[in-house]
Structures are given as C-alpha cells and as structure tokens.
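Most newcomers find our protein records easier to grasp once they have seen one. To make this concrete, we reproduce a full record directly below:

===
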Amino acid sequence: MESVTLDALDLRLLHALQLDGRAPFSKIAEVLDVSDRTVARRFGKLRAAGIARIAGVTNSHRLGHAEWLVRLRVPPARSTALALALAHRPDTAWVAVLSSGTEIGCVFRVAGEGPAPLAALGRLPYVSHVEAHRVLRPVMERRWSGRNLALTDDQIAALTPEPAADPAPVELTDLDRRLLPALAADGRAAYPDLARRIGWSESAVRRRLHELRRMGVLQLDVEIDSGLFGFSVQCMLRLSIAPGSLAQAARALAEDDEAAFVGTMTGSHNLVAVAVCRDAAALDTYLTERVGTLGGVERVESALVTAYFKRAAPEG
C-alpha cells in the first residue's frame, strides 16, 4: 500500500461512501460541492493505492447464520500463512493476527445453529490451542465513529439512505448466491459488469441488489486502515462481566467513541469488543479509566491486533 495522507476532501468522500457505498458519484459531488470528475478521480486513486475499497457484507442475523469467534495459538512463523488461508475461506467473516503473531482470531459464519468448522484446524500440528465461542448478539449497529466525522449534519442527511427493514431471516436465491460474492469483491461494481460476471440480466441484478439492501441482508462497508485517520492501535477485548451487569455494560461500551464492535458471547468471557485508539497510551487510559470502572467487570483480557487479513469480505 502506498504512503498516502488523507486530505479534507478524501475524508469527506470516505464518510459519504460509508453512509452509502453505492451512492452515485454525481450525488456525492453535489453534496460535497465539487465536480463529478473530482470525486471519481479521488476514489479511483484511493482504491488503486490499496487505501480503500467498498465491500458488500452480508448480515448474519438476516440470513439465520451463527457466528463463532475462534482463537488459535500458533508459532509466529506460521501465523501469516494460516491467516491468509483462513481469509480465503468463504465461511470466514473476519481474520486478524493478534499479539505479534502468536495468535489468530477469526469469525466463522455457519448456516443455522451449526458448530464452528474446527476439525481441520485442530489437526494442524503447529496449532497448540483452539477455542471457539458463539457470538450471541451484536450490541452496536453503528460503525466505528472515528472515520465518520467529516460531514455536517445536513450532508449526512442528504446521503443517508432509507433504513433497512428488519424481517425474519431471508432465504437466499440462486441469484443471491452469485450476486453476493461479486459484491463482496467490489461493492461499487456497475450493474452491467455485475450482470456479465454472474450471467444474469442487468434488470434482475439491479432489482435484487435493491431488495437485498432494503431487507438489510446486504450492507456496504468502506474497508480502510484506521491508522490513516490517526488511530494506530486496535485491540481485541474479552470481558467477564457479572450476568446482572452484562446488558448495561455492553450498552455502555457500545456508546464509546473507541468501540468498533461490541457483542455478547458464550464462554467464561461473555462480552467481546474491538477498541480503536490513537496510541498505546490512549489504550491504557481506555482500559484503566473506562473499561476497568464499568460495573460488574470481573476480568479483562486484551490482545493487540497486529494485522488484518480479512475485515469483512474477501478481496476480489
């Protein structure tokens, strides 16, 4: 990835795309008061440099899928290869190397109430420890706020699409099973390109993509390193909280600016979170002065994220 410093227009563009990853460049340009060509050129530069891309991400709840958080203890020399292999699996939604390469964390998505697919991983001779815990409920719906600070309230309102409905779990069609992987690779792919790639009519692709977004099955996410916004430290937290305090503690953490993800889970640690901080000192302050003072907290385990291999969707 090239060394790039984001300017004010880049930040506004990225914020706009986080609100609606398929918003036409003409609409974004109008809201930002710049030309269509400028918006297209800026995004093209960021994508070509490997800075940002739009990924189509499915919502596990809408599809009736279980999510399992799995941690593997491995020798540092093996972590990169295994993380890459996990990232290429279609059933993983998130893969990161933790603790300077001594651990790998990943999230598996499994249809129905099925178990995590661990048999093959457990047979690897260099994997010394495997643990898996079911993610029961994501507590926060919003994204990490640190990358969404560039637009005014009026600009946000102009670019925010209608909220998704919340129906019962959705049964995927044959078209969906072709379309969703294509959108995972490129959430902004043009309708004609999508139609050619999956062998379906452009009208059907356009209609179904709109339906999937309206039902909340498909979400569009800007994948970008938080370090470009001045936040260089990311940390995975697992907390043991007294059952009577769990709901309140989860809601409190979900409101923090540092929170990128908060969810309840099974196991001795019943809450998992990902915190994003400016540096190690800020993380220390967050752990000691915020997390450590929450009611009901009995134990906190932290692991720094060394590298991401899959944030939400596979590279195309």
Summary: The longest strand covers residues 297-310. Strands lie at 52-58, 65-73, 92-98, 103-111, 129-138, 218-224, 233-241, 259-265, 271-277, 297-310. The chain is about 35% helix and 25% strand. Residues 109 and 281 are 34 Å apart (CA to CA).
